[in-house]
Amino acid sequence: MVNHHPWRGYLCKLNNVIHTPSIITPINCCRQFSFYSSFSRETREMVSENPFSSSKRSPSPKFSNSFTNRIFSDVAGDITIVVDGDSFLLHKFPLVSRSGKIRKMVADAKDSNVSKMELENFPGGSHTFELAMKFCYSMNFEITPANLAPLRCAAEYLEMTEDYRDENLIERTEVYLNDIVLQSLEKSVEVLSTCEMLPSIAEEVGIPSRCIDAIAINACKEQLVSGLSRLDCDAESTELKSGCIEWWIEDLSVLKIDYYERVICAMCKVGVRSDSIIASLMHYAQTSLKGIGKYQIWNPSKVKQSPSMAENDQCSIMATLVSLLPAEKSSSIPLSFLFGMLRMSIMLDATIACRLELERRIAFRLEMVSLDDLLIPSVRSGDSLFDVDTVHRILVNFLQRIEEENVDCGYESDGLGSSGYGSLLKVGRLIDAYLAEIAPDPYLSLQKFIAMIEILPDYARVIDDGLYRAIDIYLKAHAILSEHESKKLCKFIDCQKLSQEASNHAAQNDRLPVQMTVRVLYFEQLRLKNAISGNSGDGFLSQRISSGVPSAVMSPRDNYASLRRENRELKLEISRMRVRLSELEKEQMYMKQGMIDKSGNGKTFLTSLSKGIGRIGIFSSPTGGRRQKSSRKYRGSEGKPGRNRRSFVS
Known about the structure:
With 650 residues, the chain is mainly α. The protein has a domain at 79-181: Potassium Channel Kv1.1, Chain A (2-Layer Sandwich), CATH 3.30.710. The chain has helices spanning 6-16, 29-37, 41-47, 66-71, 92-96, 100-108, 125-136, 145-157, 169-181, 185-194, 201-205, 207-233, 238-242, 248-251, 257-270, 274-288, 309-324, 335-347, 352-363, 371-374, 388-409, 419-438, 446-454, 465-477, 483-490, 500-507, 514-533, 538-547, 556-597, 605-620, 627-636; strands at residues 79-83, 86-90, 116-118. It has a three-stranded mixed beta sheet with strand order 2-1-3. The longest helix is centred in the C-terminal third of the chain and has 42 residues, at 556-597. It is elongated, with a radius of gyration of 41 Å. Residues 618-650 are annotated as: Disordered. Residues 246-527 form the NPH3 domain. It comes from Manihot esculenta.
């Protein structure tokens, strides 16, 4: 009669259990028994000190753990291992045969009959420990991208190396990682996301770094494939073109910011296109920065005194995303995205470096900005409705960029056709429109309003109509300004650069100081004289030219700068003369049309000319009278008695 070892019957019971198929196959029970027999006598006595003989068997303890109840209801265990508060009733032999850590713990125990151990800081928790124990008992289960990283870390923690058993858990997980996970971008992202909850042991075994490199390399491969798809999409509809965008952009949004930053840096190193990286950054920002700070818009009183933990995380995400933006100046980062990030950084009170970098990038393309983009709401209590300081800093950066380009390109870049000068004119019109939008704000201080006006150089405005309109709106909304403050504000208007319509409106505007009205009427008189004599403003031009001659004792550098300024002023005068000529041609056309339409009613050219001469007579009278009296005289000299005055303020 053959005396069977107790393990033999137990392993046969395990092999009779039906399990789900997987890549991990059960180990033959005879192989298990022979391995057990190869142990030294001391080891066999250690693991079979309290074997499963019927004479010493005690009733199985009841544990709440389902794994213990399901597997070990027939055979009593001889060791209890506690992981994260969960108890596992197990057997020493299958554990010490594969785990070097448990073998050392059993061997080093003072009591040879140790029956309880606790594993602290186990990677992946009790669920991962259960899978590791199934592997020790040769039970089938499936390795997936979701449990690979915890299993690999658990195998490292338990020291399940080839020194204790062939094809141990470390080897099995490494094979799956190299052959399955790292060959797929999607699976690499999934495994990398699971590493975020694991301790530092994940970095020690190198799972994150290998997944990050695999993501970057696979993204490069996808880039080549998508390049061919884009060629096919060029001949198709817009819907197909939108489908050619890289699909992995959405997958990366599940990563935490630390891993995401490492992935983007790796992609930049291997040569992934900048537009794909920008699209990924935009999607990640929309996913991770939504819903924070919305309550602060247009309600500064609700700003919290201390930021919450979530907002601190948002600030970190914001700073990281800004640092990841491509450094190329010609990058196609949408301005709407930059302004959205800037608004969010203001609401979250992000770092100064983060905000200044966004402002610098916006200033580089300020001529392409729309008016709505500049209307950034202010979140500080007691301040104006709009964040004027931010726009002012953006404008300073823009002017510095224009000056640097002029210095780099040299003297020839000052032409009217140069891109720098064209950009400056566009920004001048944009800022005038911005001033008109913020002027009605009752909380906007005069100092901030003047600072926005005077920062632009004189040659940034060919015509001052937009500036006059903004100042007029500000005077209307801030009626409490003193006469001195009104004069200080109106001195920035160049009456020579006002159009005919703006000059007519300014001459009848009671909100302007008397000196401003007199200047407007004076230049209107000179303009009319030049129109009659056919001079077309050459007197102004010769006067400016005579005042701009450089001194012979100037240094060559100062002389060059003076010549540049003179050249710029001459070209501006030419532009103004062209505008004046266009206005005179329009007036001449209207006058000819009026002569044809009204020849039967006595409305002749001489009548219109007499009205103009009568207007000139007003300017020859003393100008020391009150503004109201002068305004009434000007309104009384209008051509049509019942004519309604057109308002220049929208």
